[in-house]
Design brief:
Length: about 140
């Protein structure tokens, strides 16, 4: 358990330059992953072991962009698509796309019917509830008069 108080932004303290660097306003930063207070210069959170970057304006260490992961993902997708082309799937995929569009259009129609159906059901339920209330009120009034 470590309790480190995070200094308030210096704006609350009198007479400090407003052009001061963001990082200088805090004495520590917060881990984006586990929210532990960590030293400003830390690049790895001592609490959870995640990589942490620069401090943001809220005093939280930003998550560094994992470019290697993005690069690997892009390469993997590129390789997969290339593999499909190698398998000779380029033509089948081109033939298949218009059908996919048709299906999307058809699905859109069903979605529209579903939405309008729900709206209809809602309005009808509301109308019958109002009718029930009005009739109940009329019965009540005729009973007491
Ligand atoms: Zn952490």
């Amino acid at each position: 358990m470590c309790i480190v108080t995070q200094a308030l932004p210096e704006e609350t303290m009198a007479g400090t330059g407003k052009d001061s660097d963001q990082a200088k306003r805090f004495s520590s930063k917060k881990c984006h992953e586990c929210f532990a207070y960590i030293p400003l210069e830390a690049t790895i959170c001592p609490s959870c072991g995640k990589k942490v970057g620069e401090i943001d304006k809220n005093g939280i260490a930003v998550k560094p962009t994992n470019w290697i992961a993005y690069a690997i993902a892009a390469l993997a997708w590129g390789g997969f698509i290339f593999y499909l082309f190698l398998l000779g799937w380029a033509e089948p995929i081109k033939d298949f796309l218009p059908h996919l569009l048709d299906w999307v259009k058809e699905a859109g129609i069903y979605l529209w019917l579903l939405v309008t159906g729900i709206v209809d059901w809602f309005i009808e339920s509301w109308a019958s509830l109002l009718e029930w209330l009005v009739n109940g009120w009329k019965d009540f009034m005729s009973d007491i008069s």
